[in-house]
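Anyone up for a design puzzle?
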């Protein structure tokens, strides 16, 4: 799915409360604008699950993380098919903590595990 394909698609987009301030939506908009198109939501909903339900009804297509689609497998009313975005879209994550706090060993271990897993997923 290219930015030009997204510009031409009838889309249901989640995160209606955040709208154009949503990180994913802003990245999609930038990609579509880079090829001279515009990103338009035919339908806006609040959560990914609802967007997938709308897509399962055949009313519009949606963009979601692979993991969110996998979690909904078997729950939606019709089979959904996916295709990767070209170029790929990546989220940005941050570990946030107070500067006057020393992180515990267990916390550091969780951060290391999460970082390792994110790198593995990105390498796929």
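Challenge accepted. My sequence:
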């Amino acid at each position: 799915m290219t930015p030009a394909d997204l510009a031409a698609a009838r889309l249901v987009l989640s995160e209606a409360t955040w709208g154009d301030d949503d990180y994913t939506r802003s990245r999609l908009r930038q990609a579509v604008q880079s090829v001279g198109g515009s990103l338009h939501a035919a339908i806006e909903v609040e959560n990914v699950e609802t967007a997938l339900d709308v897509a399962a009804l055949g009313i519009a297509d949606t963009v979601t993380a692979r993991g969110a689609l996998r979690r909904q497998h078997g729950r939606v009313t019709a089979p959904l098919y996916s295709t990767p975005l070209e170029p790929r879209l990546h989220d940005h994550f941050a570990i946030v903590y107070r500067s006057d706090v020393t992180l515990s060993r267990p916390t550091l271990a969780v951060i290391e595990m999460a970082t390792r897993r994110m790198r593995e997923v990105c390498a796929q």
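A detail worth pointing out: DSSP finds five helices and two strands in the chain.
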